[in-house]
Design brief:
Pfam families: Glyco_trans_1_2. It comes from Moorena producens PAL-8-15-08-1. InterPro entries: YkvP/CgeB_Glyco_trans-like (IPR055259). This is Spore protein YkvP/CgeB glycosyl transferase-like domain-containing protein. This protein is α/β, with parallel strands linked by helices. The protein is built from 17 helices and eleven strands. The strands form two sheets. A six-stranded parallel sheet has the order 2-1-3-4-5-6, with helices on both faces. Strand 9, helix 13 and strand 10 form a beta-alpha-beta unit. The longest helix is centred in the last third of the chain and has 26 residues.
């Protein structure tokens, strides 16, 4: 059978501070899933989108994947951060394949008034996404509530897809925790400061900073996106440098992710605090891949998301600081229970949530229209 050819248009930022939080698994980690499914692919990172025609040449594809519709043109991100795609470029990409898939890794529609007051850019997200829809044939959404709204508003088929993880980097043999605390990583917004400073949690819970700040990874990444380089890549003569750039970004992101997983192993658990994204963020499945129990806020009105992992066996859910504190204290005092949670979650993600599986599921859905079942 002839291999499928996919063009992956992947958003990339032009400085490491902004770029690092984007999970490897839903960035160039998609390429691992393509390899596993015998997909021939070409990846274009958006800082080089002005040379897309030259990079593609005479090639044509079966599918174009654009990842991510929000971050590529979110008005929160200015063009100088490397994410912008013009409508002319969208039209050009639409000529390259009969199937064009847009990925949405964050929520689009379902925000509260309070969330939009704290994060005004959320009010513009729907308009950002709708700019892309005329150029697409399919949409993949990480928030289950967005599926029906995308389908109703655009008429395009939309599949719900939880965040996957690269299977080869799931840890089996994990050292004991270095610190007797649970760790949280992410921005301190949407009321998270209250959790971090809560008297019940202060002894058991702390933030985890990136292990990459000030390292060679950050410095090289920023050099690859420096002003002289950005000027250079406006010239087609820079084309041979593109693959040097792409391979460098691949290595930086993979090695950074490996360091990140090791950092998650330092604590007794990984905590996912309330967030304006109404699905399990990549940090949830990364904690499981690192080999630590994951504690997450119980996302309201998302029954399919909740069913992904069994509460009390594969994940521990909480709604209040008291519940979170009780979970952490139990994990601190009961190593066997912590190990059981970890092993159960590992089996689940290996069976249903690797990038290999997710690429296979998306390709099958495009071909048959049949949505995957994740349990």
């Amino acid at each position: 059978m002839k291999p499928i050819k996919i063009l992956l248009v992947q958003c990339e930022m032009d400085n490491w501070r902004v770029a690092r939080p984007w999970s490897y698994n839903v960035h160039v980690g998609w390429e691992v899933g393509f390899h596993a499914n015998n997909v021939q692919f070409l990846t274009i990172l958006t800082p080089w989108i002005s040379l897309a025609k030259e990079i593609v040449g005479e090639q044509r594809f079966d599918q174009v994947w654009i990842n991510d519709l929000l971050w590529i043109n979110d008005l929160l991100i200015s063009p100088r951060h490397g994410g912008d795609i013009s409508e002319a470029q969208l039209a050009m990409l639409a000529t390259l394949a009969p199937v064009r898939v847009g990925l949405l890794t964050e929520s689009v529609y379902d925000y509260t008034d309070q969330e939009m007051a704290v994060h005004p850019h959320l009010q513009r997200r729907q308009a950002v996404v709708e700019k892309f829809l005329p150029y697409l044939t399919h949409v993949v959404a990480y928030d289950e509530a967005d599926v029906a709204k995308v389908e109703y508003g655009s008429g395009l088929p939309c599949m719900w897809s939880p965040s996957p993880v690269v299977g080869s980097l799931i840890h089996e043999d994990v050292p004991p925790p270095t610190y007797n605390q649970a760790f949280f990583s992410g921005g301190v917004h949407h009321g998270r400061q209250m959790w971090l400073k809560h008297p019940l949690l202060q002894e058991h819970f702390s933030g985890l900073s990136s292990p990459d700040q000030g390292t060679l990874y950050a410095q090289v990444f920023d050099c690859l996106h420096s002003r002289p380089v950005r000027c250079l890549i406006q010239n087609p003569l820079a084309l041979p440098f593109y693959y040097v750039y792409l391979n460098a970004v691949r290595r930086i992101r993979k090695r950074s992710y490996i360091r990140w997983l090791r950092g998650l192993q330092l604590g007794v658990a990984v905590v996912n605090l309330p967030h304006f994204v109404k699905s399990y963020t990549p940090r949830v499945i990364e904690g499981m891949a690192a080999g630590r129990p994951v504690l997450s806020w119980e996302i309201p009105n998302r029954p399919r998301n909740k069913a992904l992992f069994e509460d009390g066996k594969e994940i521990l859910l909480f709604n209040t600081p008291d519940e979170l504190a009780a979970h952490i204290q139990r994990l601190q005092s009961d190593a066997l229970f912590a190990q059981q949670i970890t092993e159960n979650a590992r089996r689940r993600i290996r069976k249903f949530h690797t990038t290999d599986k997710r690429v296979q599921q998306i390709l099958k859905w495009i071909q048959t229209g049949k949505e995957p079942i994740y349990q």
